[in-house]
Amino acid sequence: MATQNTKTLARLMMAPSVLLLLVWMIVPLAMTLWFSFQNYNLLNPGNVSFAGFFNYQYFYTDPAFFQSIWNTLVIVGGVLLITVVGGIAIALLLDQPIFGQGVVRILVISPFFVMPPVAALIWKNMIMHPGYGVLADIAKFFGLRPVDWFAQYPLFSIVIIVAWQWLPFATLILLTALQSLDGEQKEAAEMDGANFFNRFIYLVLPHLARAITVVILIQTIFLLGVYAEILVTTNGGPGYASTNLAFLIYRTALLGYDVGGASAGGIIAVVLANIVAFFLMRAVGKNLDR
Amino acid sequence: MARNVTTRHKITATVAAWIVALIIFFPILYTLITSVKTEPEAIAGFSLIPSGTFENYVTVQTQRDYFKPFMNSVVLAVGSTILALIIAIPSAWAMAFSPTKRTKDILMWMLSTKMMPAVAVLVPIYLMFRDFGLLDTRIGLTVMLTLINLPIVVWMLYTYFREIPGEILEAARMDGAGLWQEIVYVLTPMAVPGIASTLLLNIILAWNEAFWTIRLTTTNAAPLTAFIASFSSPQGLFWAKLSAASTMAIAPILILGWFSQKQLVRGLTFGAVK
């Protein structure tokens, strides 16, 4: 009887968050799915009709669609490459005995706490500006012509900014994992004459495997939706050169007023994200059994 | 000899680490320096020595009413966090102390809602906000941020609560403690650190959320994310003033963040890395 009571109580305690999230997940997604099969333009809201797969076809045949998918992949892949490789290197460095470790850690993780619009504007104006940026100052110092980063390499510039924001996250997680490595094992390997390279390949890297997986998967979830950094720097341009899928959907929806088209794009984004989510859930779920 | 090698090793590592750290931190440092330069100084080429004026901070407040978006950020971040905690604490509690076969599935499912890309539901959310008159209101955005971060809050609390040993409860019961005493004298003191960590991390996440806060506000409820994003065009603020506004926007959360390094790892990896 008591257990029955406890069970009921537990269900009641869980109900609010479960119900809220259920509604939050199902209602908007169902609406997006519904809209994706409608001709619905906010400029002509009285004239809504069934569109079949027209919106998907339209999105699919739009040259901007493939470019945006490609750009999305470049942003995700580029940032992951920089943050994982850089994160491992910096984590290994910070794992050494150094003077002022606490301060160094604080400096290294700081970019993660900078809100995206601020990060993007700092880089746009203070660092990468072709006239007054620090990089231009350095180029001029060496007698070179400053690079107009956002005009010449828009996508690369965005990758750099986003990588700067996520490098601390990767570093912090990898460092945490590194510090849980058994010191005795390291010493034993050293005693056996394993050099740094061998210790890294056979001892450290396998130990970091789980943390690296987690970093890749979590960052991917956020990187698929990079938005504010694009909005305040290139606004997706020049042309569609730095438009990712998230930004294209925003453009279609709120600048093109095309509810149907944007919804079809949204469904495509959901499918993409789900592929990633599938792997993340497995990685996290395994840990839960532990 | 051996000691000599370790000292040299330590010095080399220290120099390398400081160089890396300063390069990574440089954009923030330079913003801080630029914020106390005059406008002509700010565009006069590279310089680490400002004239040290605080005029920019004053101007940002008087010309742009900085205090308003700042207060919006505070209300949204703190409000949504407290709301999420109120909803999440009972759930996490139930999952940690009376788990069933389905507890794990429910947790995984909650996490999966976090995977839904925001843009995918931009259209319906925007239309609903418009129809319910919630666009550009603090209440609408608070609810939004609560829902977005609820899964992380439940997860974080769950991983903390799970570490409270059940034997302590049994011991308290043996000593004749009632449910109420159990909660007040035994569980609460043990749960408070976990709740505080969750609170801290969630405030950081909510403060920096930059999709919904920008898209669903215009002026009245716009927090600092939207305020700063509105200066993306060059004719907005000048650089020294923009730096002052940026410094004020990131300083509180930067300091909070420094205190929450450990919780950050745990919270954002859903307990997979500790």
Shape label of chain B: globular
SSE order of chain A, as H and E?
HEEHHHHHHHHHHHH
Number of strands of chain A: 2
Please compute the radius of gyration of chain A using only Cα atoms: 24 Å
The CATH superfamily of the largest domain in chain B appears as MetI-like
Write down the secondary-structure element order of chain B.
Answer: HHHHHHHHHHHHH
Helix/strand structural class of chain B: mainly alpha
CATH topology category name of chain A: MetI-like fold
What's the N-to-C terminus distance of chain B? 37 Å
Across the major sheet of chain A, the strand order is 1-2
Approximately what portion of the residues of chain B adopt beta-strand conformation? under 5%
Major sheet of chain B:
none
Q: Would you tell me the overall average pLDDT of chain A? A: 84
- Under CATH, the topology of the largest domain in chain B can be stated as MetI-like fold
- Please count the helical segments of chain A: 13
Structural class of chain A, by secondary structure, is: mainly alpha
Task: Describe what this molecule looks like in 3D.
- The complex is a heterodimer of chains A (290) and B (274).
- Chain A is globular and about 75 Å long.
- Chain A has one domain (19-289): MetI-like (MetI-like fold), CATH 1.10.3720.10.
- In chain A, helix 3 (63-94) packs parallel to helix 8, helix 3 (63-94) packs across helix 12 and helix 12 (245-255) runs antiparallel to helix 13.
- By secondary structure, chain A is an all-alpha fold.
- Chain A is built from 13 helices and two strands, in the order H-E-E-H-H-H-H-H-H-H-H-H-H-H-H.
- Chain B is 73% helix and 0% strand.
- Chain B has helices spanning 2-34, 39-42, 55-64, 67-97, 103-113, 122-131, 138-161, 166-174, 179-208, 212-215, 224-229, 239-258, 261-268.
- The longest helix of chain B is centred in the N-terminal third of the chain and has 33 residues, at 2-34.
- The mean pLDDT of chain B is 84.
